[in-house]
Write a structure and sequence with these properties.
The protein is mainly alpha-helical. A hairpin with a 2-residue loop joins strand 2 and strand 3. The chain has helices spanning 5-14, 21-34, 38-44, 75-80, 83-92, 101-107, 111-121, and strands spanning 2-3, 47-49, 52-54, 69-70. The N and C termini lie far apart (44 Å). It has one domain. The longest helix has 14 residues, at 21-34. The chain has a two-stranded antiparallel ribbon with strand order 1-4.
Length: 126
């Protein structure tokens, strides 16, 4: 899948920090695939601190203005890293942001249809 730098950063933030050996080893493999290259760190002057990721002025990474790169994430890697579960939780808490949408469509493509079907199945008020 083609991922912009901001998408890779978001997925890095969603990786499980605890779990079984399989979960942690898979998360480590995925982390290594998603980390920015040395060239990207230099080109965008990337710095991460307690407040988040910062980049050079003029590089509008939130608008996905950078060229996406091909990252091979297998279905088992996506499943073990629980990306869909994370997005589902953010949806339930109504904490999703608009820049999550393209990423959800990549790693949890059926989630939108499932949530719409759930809404349609709920009894109507009034």
């Amino acid at each position: 899948m083609k991922l912009h730098l901001i998408d890779r950063y978001l997925l890095l933030r969603f990786l499980p920090a605890e779990g079984s050996f399989v979960i942690l080893k898979t998360a480590e493999t995925v982390r290594n695939k998603l980390l920015p290259s040395a060239e990207e760190v230099e080109a965008y002057e990337l710095v991460e601190d307690q407040t988040g990721l910062h980049w050079k002025e003029g590089a509008n990474l939130l608008a996905r203005s950078d060229d996406p790169i091909e990252i091979e994430l297998t279905a088992p890697e996506i499943r073990v890293c629980k990306f869909e579960k994370t997005f589902r939780k953010l949806d339930e808490e109504e904490k999703l942001l608009s820049f999550h949408i393209p990423l959800i469509e990549l790693v949890a493509p059926g989630l939108y249809a499932e949530l719409v079907a759930k809404l349609e199945a709920e009894p109507k008020e009034g």
